[in-house]
UniProtKB/TrEMBL annotation:
Residues 125-328 form the HD-GYP domain. It comes from the Bacteria. Residues 1-58 form the PAS domain. SMART domains: HDc. SUPFAM superfamilies: HD-domain/PDEase-like, PYP-like sensor domain (PAS domain). It comes from Paenibacillus planticolens. PANTHER family: CYCLIC DI-GMP PHOSPHODIESTERASE TM_0186-RELATED (PTHR45228), TWO-COMPONENT RESPONSE REGULATOR-RELATED (PTHR45228:SF8). This is HD domain-containing protein. Pfam families: HD_5, PAS_9. InterPro entries: Cyclic_di-GMP/3'3'-cGAMP_PDE, HD/PDEase_dom, HD_GYP_dom, PAS, PAS-like_dom_sf.
């Protein structure tokens, strides 16, 4: 071990030094203390002996890619201690050159406070959130066999519109916000679970009273979500639930203030609700429903253009119509 490398072993974090083939050259006392391995037990072995098999393959792929390009890499490993217990740690691996030789310096931070759980990456967290919200939305609207396709299309169109909008507005929206809105968009009509079927699927025109009952669905939806967020008082879902609530409550508001339930105007309507309101109407009109035939696409686009500034945010209509035309 050259003197230059031995300085790294003096750090108070757990440190492992390997050669460029990931063969362990040394570890420091902190590493020994956390993992239970003694230097003489693992020096000379491949670093792979520490693996638990629980770190996602993707993590190793990213690590190899960065290290091959001579870049430092940080990520989360789930390794095993000498006694076979799992060890969750955040590691930064830095490639260095000393005296013409290449080495990797791995500095670990123990994630002790989640050591009894499972580390969930942001991508996986988003997938779990999306799946739970999808199941929830479907179970609330199970009476309509067509609803799954509608909800899926609304979600896809929301994703496309948000990305187009962001491109047109120099990435004004964060990736996290976009993903939360996409995940939450599927929830927009959960309040319909509280509306009697006879009214919900009535062919033909609704009476004044029936329309009033339908128009309670945004507030019924908020009520359902309030109960869920009370039970699921968890950071994992807080942002998704807040955005879901906003979409559920405001997706029937109109730009000119003539919508329901609060008659909000313009940008008083949360942006995520403006987006879902537009794609929801587009998909409803282009689809066949119990009470109406599907409209031809051009007729729907003309209708949306006509509703610029009355029902919808004009800027969103322009971007959406251009996007649909471009896709044909
Ligand atoms: Fe609705």
């Amino acid at each position: 071990m050259t003197t230059g490398l031995s300085y790294f072993l003096m750090l108070s974090d757990a440190v492992i030094i390997t050669d460029k083939n990931h063969r362990i050259m040394d570890i420091n006392p902190s590493y020994e203390e956390i993992t239970g391995y003694r230097r003489e037990m693992i020096i000379g072995h491949q670093a792979g002996i520490l693996k638990s098999g629980l770190t996602p393959k993707n993590t190793y792929d990213q690590m190899k890619k960065e290290l091959t390009n001579n870049q430092a890499w940080s990520g989360v490993f789930i390794n095993r201690k000498q006694n076979k217990d799992l060890w969750h740690s955040n590691i930064t691996i830095t490639p260095i050159e000393l005296d013409g030789e290449s080495y990797y310096i791995g500095i670990f931070r123990d994630l002790g406070d989640i050591s009894e759980g499972i580390y969930v990456s942001e991508t996986r967290k988003s997938k779990i959130q999306n799946e739970i919200l999808r199941v929830l939305a479907l179970s609330c609207e199970i009476r309509d066999p067509e609803i799954e396709n509608h909800l899926f299309r609304v979600q896809q169109l929301t994703a496309s519109l948000l990305r187009e909008y962001n491109e047109a507005h120099h990435s004004k929206l964060s990736d996290d916000y976009i993903q939360h809105v996409i995940n939450a968009s599927i929830m927009h009509d959960i309040g319909k679970s509280g509306i009697p079927e006879g009214i919900l699927y009535k062919p033909g025109k609704l009476t004044f009273y029936e329309r009033n009952i339908i128009e309670t669905h945004p507030l019924i939806g908020v009520d359902i979500l309030n109960k869920i967020s009370h039970e699921l008082n968890d950071d994992l879902f807080r942002q998704e639930l807040d955005i879901s609530k906003s979409i559920v409550e405001f997706h029937h508001e109109k730009w000119d203030g003539s919508g329901y339930p609060h008659r909000l105007k313009g940008n008083e309507i949360p942006f995520e609700a403006q987006v879902v309101s537009l794609v929801d109407v587009y998909d409803a009109l282009t689809s066949r429903r119990a009470y109406k035939e599907a409209w031809p696409e051009e007729k729907v686009l003309d209708y949306l253009i006509e509703q610029k500034g009355s029902s919808f945010n004009p800027d969103l209509v322009d971007i959406f119509v251009a996007m649909i035309r471009k896709s044909k």
